[in-house]
UniProtKB/TrEMBL annotation:
Pfam families: FAR1 (PF03101), MULE (PF10551), SWIM (PF04434). It is found in: Nucleus. The keyword Metal-binding applies. This is Protein FAR1-RELATED SEQUENCE. It comes from Rehmannia glutinosa (Chinese foxglove). Putative transcription activator involved in regulating light control of development. The keyword Zinc-finger applies. It comes from the Eukaryota. InterPro entries: FAR1_DNA_bnd_dom, FHY3/FAR1, MULE_transposase_dom, Znf_PMZ, Znf_SWIM.
Length: 621
């Protein structure tokens, strides 16, 4: 008797091996499968044959899953790779709870041959009493595990069996040809094989490499995600601001690439993850964000930056409910032309006014006045796109984000922004093979750039340009890149005049006139708490004090910058952690070291098996 397993979306499974099978997309109306390679857990790729993708996904006794759906999806993908159909041979429910506790998934050729009158179709898989199967059971605490696995089949492997089984369950004709969609339009079969081979190679070279392949209900690649070990380690130190860049999707590149980007203490953009996605739907973005979050141990960033796309907004809210979500300004200004150029006779003048309104307003009240004046002058008050920008003003207007640290990500010019990060590595016509070569080149060049910056910090002290004690203090702490930015603020002190504006029991308010910028700024200073705040909010926005705050400190007789205004993430010791935190990091990466040791043990075992002398030598070692 064949019993259909109740597969439900919205579930996820965890495997105590370097691959996960996940099916946690609540937005999909179809069952999808994922294969996750790399990451934490014992590396069964070392135990099996690293040269074989099939063996890399072979079930092992004792493997654990969070749900029965995850276990089924895992065996289903293994069957697809090998080339046989599967079905539920038997299952058992608990008498107390009524829930499944025991399931046997078998090759579709199990059992004896049916009479011809009961055949599903003329091409249905003939029964050969095949014993190949995976038997799973449920622990009392809720997880599922592989109780037994039988690999051998008593018939010739026929890849059509898998697809016939899938079509049979759907009561569809075996002659139906699946139309290409999503990622299949960008990657052909050869591209997919190339990509999978690259992942296998990367994982073999570095156990910390983590990748996820998302399959649709017809076992076709839907989305792909990966991140190398350096990206995962970097995120431990720089998890405050993360950018999901969909520029290359919007630009209709051949390779639908979405990089996940952070910034390190040298003000260099770092790659925290990569994805190739098949569409721009809400469900896909939720899958991408959840997958990335799992790859970095579930630690959510403080700030998420994305394009101003409705699906991205909803996905971010779903996956990162506690993070501050904002838009990249360049993305916003990029869309001004397509939305308004045909409707405005003075389009260039409008863009100039918009930039002045956005970047020249130091208070919310000032912004509101300028915005209303601008939309009235150009008669765009009723324009839906303009209305949406205004409604989302807290996500992209600097005045409304002055207390949000953005790590220097958000600029209005593309050439200065993170949006141009991969431009020299990826163009519209780039093929997947060329892209992977460029990706590897980028990793090499970025590692080299970081190493050079590190050496410069350690062996080439920056030159001082003034007698300011602030400059001397920070020259020993900041990295060269950040120090150069801070130095510009120190040199700007001479262009500032300071006057007391008011005072109460706790705080003194100063009026700072910035002659260079032709602006006046209010700076409040609480000497008792060493708390200072400027209207420009440069510290909150970029992480170092502005010339206006420095001018007030100098006038107040303060010769050193208070420690609470020195962000460690911008210092040369950004990657040094306290003992307790380092112990936590060591625990997170202990399994990765275990993976390395397991592989070495296998290699030594293979060598030792060749002769008795080698066995004796290894034992002595």
């Amino acid at each position: 008797m064949e019993i259909d397993l109740e597969l439900a979306s919205g579930q996820e499974g965890r495997l105590n091996a370097p691959m996960d099978i996940r099916n946690d997309d609540n937005e999909r109306n179809e069952v999808g499968n994922e294969i996750v390679g790399g990451g934490d857990g014992v590396d069964f790729n070392a135990v099996n044959d690293n040269k074989s993708g099939i063996n890399s996904y072979m079930p092992q006794n004792g493997m654990e899953f969070e749900t029965k759906e995850s276990a089924y999806s895992f065996y289903r993908e293994y069957a697809r790779l090998v080339g046989f159909g599967i079905t539920i041979k038997a299952s058992r429910r608990s008498k107390k709870s009524g829930k499944f506790i025991d399931i046997k998934i078998a090759c579709s050729r199990f059992g004896s041959k049916r009479p011809s009158s009961t055949a599903i179709s003329p091409r249905a898989c003939p029964k050969t009493d095949c014993k190949a199967s995976m038997h799973i059971k449920k622990y009392p605490e809720g997880k599922w595990f592989v109780f037994s696995f039988v690999e051998e089949h008593n018939h010739e492997i026929c890849p059509d069996d898998f697809y016939n089984a899938v079509r049979g369950k759907k009561n569809q004709s075996t002659n139906v040809v699946c139309q290409k969609k999503g990622l299949q339009l960008a990657l052909d079969e050869r591209d997919v094989r190339f990509l999978l081979d690259c992942f296998m190679q990367m994982q073999a070279e570095a156990p910390g490499f983590y990748h996820v392949i998302d399959f649709d209900k017809d076992a076709r690649m839907r989305n792909v995600f990966w991140v190398d070990s350096k990206g995962r380690r970097d995120y431990v130190h720089f998890s405050d601001v993360v950018f999901f860049d969909t520029h290359y999707i919007r630009s209709k590149c051949n390779v639908p690439f979405v990089p996940v980007i952070g910034v390190n203490h040298h003000f260099q953009f770092i790659l925290l993850g990569c994805a190739l996605i098949g569409d721009e739907t809400l469900s896909t973005f939720i899958w991408l964000m959840r997958t990335w979050l799992r790859a970095v141990s579930g630690r959510s960033p403080k700030v998420i930056i994305t394009d101003n796309d409705k699906s991205l907004v909803e996905a971010t809210s779903e996956v990162f409910p506690d993070a501050f979500h904002c838009f990249c300004p360049w993305h916003v200004f990029r869309d001004v032309g397509p939305n308004l150029s045909q409707k405005l006779t003075e389009f260039e003048v409008f863009v100039t006014k918009l930039k002045k309104c956005v970047y020249g307003s130091w208070t919310k009240e000032e912004f509101e006045k300028r915005w209303q004046k601008m939309v009235n002058k150009f008669d765009v008050t009723d324009n839906k796109w303009i209305q949406s920008l205004y409604e989302d003003r807290r996500k992209w207007i600097p005045t409304f984000m002055r207390n949000v640290f953005l790590g220097g990500f958000c600029t209005v010019e593309r050439s200065q922004s993170v949006a141009s990060y991969f431009d020299k590595y990826l163009q519209k016509g780039t093929t997947i093979e060329v892209f992977i070569d460029h990706y590897k080149l980028f990793l090499h060049e970025s590692c080299e750039a970081e190493a050079k910056a590190q050496i410069k910090d350690q062996h080439a002290p920056p030159a001082l340009i003034s007698h300011s004690p602030f400059e001397k203090q920070m020259s020993k702490l900041y990295t060269h890149a950040i120090y150069k930015k801070f130095q510009a603020e120190v040199s700007g002190i001479v262009a500032c005049t300071v006057g007391k504006e008011g005072e109460d029991e706790r705080t003194i308010a100063y009026r700072v006139v910035d002659l260079e910028r032709k602006q006046c700024f209010t700076v409040s200073w609480n000497k008792r708490k060493y708390d200072i705040c400027c209207l420009c909010h440069l510290f909150e926005y970029s992480g170092f004090l502005c010339r206006h705050a420095l001018s007030v400190l100098q006038l107040s007789g303060i010769s050193t910058i208070p420690s609470n205004y020195i962000l460690k993430r911008w210092t040369q010791k950004a990657k040094m952690r306290d003992t307790a935190h380092q112990a936590s990091i060591n625990t997170n990466f202990r399994i990765e070291r275990l993976n390395d040791l397991c592989k070495l043990a296998i290699e030594l075992g293979e060598e030792g098996s060749l002769s008795g002398k080698l066995i004796e030598l290894h034992v002595m070692l």
